[in-house]
Fold this sequence. Notes:
The chain has helices spanning 13-17, 26-39, 55-67, 85-102, 113-119, 137-142, 147-152, 161-166, 196-200, and strands spanning 73-77, 105-109, 123-127, 130-135, 158-159, 179-183, 188-190, 211-221, 224-231, 234-239, 253-258, 263-267. The protein is α+β, with helices and mostly antiparallel strands. It has a 5-stranded antiparallel sheet with strand order 7-11-8-9-10.
Amino acid sequence: MFQDGQLFPFRDVAGNIAYGLAGLPQAERARRVAEMLELVGLPGYGDRAVSTLSGGQAQRVVLARALAPRPRLLLLDEPLSALDRALREQLATELRAVLQVQGTTALYVTHDQDEAMTVADRVGVMEAGRLLRLDTPERLWADPGSARVARFLGFGPVLDAEAAARLGWGGLLDGRPGSLLALAPGALAVGAGESADAAAGSGADDAGPGVRVRVESVRMRGGERIAQVRLAEQDAAIVLPDDGVEPVRPGQEVTVCLDRRRTAVVQE
């Protein structure tokens, strides 16, 4: 299953899906095509021209064509990357369900870690042809293993022992030589008040005293206001509170605290 689909324009939807079923009797071939259209949520689309399909519909047909011969292994190369974000998220969930129903083993290549976590039972992170980490989505997120994997997954900043100690978070490294403290998205939050005590009491599971930082910019992401700051000479994002008080502005100083549940100890 390819990124651009590669449907045959001279065949209708049913003809595309039946491409790998040439050795079957006609009636059995028709039954399998109808079964696959039902599976991918396109019943009744068999006689449609592929040129009339939306991007999401076309990728469903591509998936049906790939699954129709009941392969033992299905290879998928960036199959959703040409679609918009909302459709990718929807189809990733549907794709996992289809593969589970069919009982098909799949090797899925993507640069989108959220997509990989949605589809896969096990996720491997590769760099320059080397497999850096392989585990379930849950264990990979909880323990990226290395700073390179953590950064790829969206962790940041990644603090060495000196920087972590300077911020009051050195205890999370447990004195392990060469260890780094990686902060997952959402690890930093602004407290309800402007004092360190108020930040530490704001509900986050803090790992030390609040840290005073200067807000460089503010943006919206997923319905939340996110502030960009500098922490230990690295860029960091913090979630701003929606408490009805005067909103935080660029140039303002705020106190942030750390949720230790959203950190990981990694190696360089």
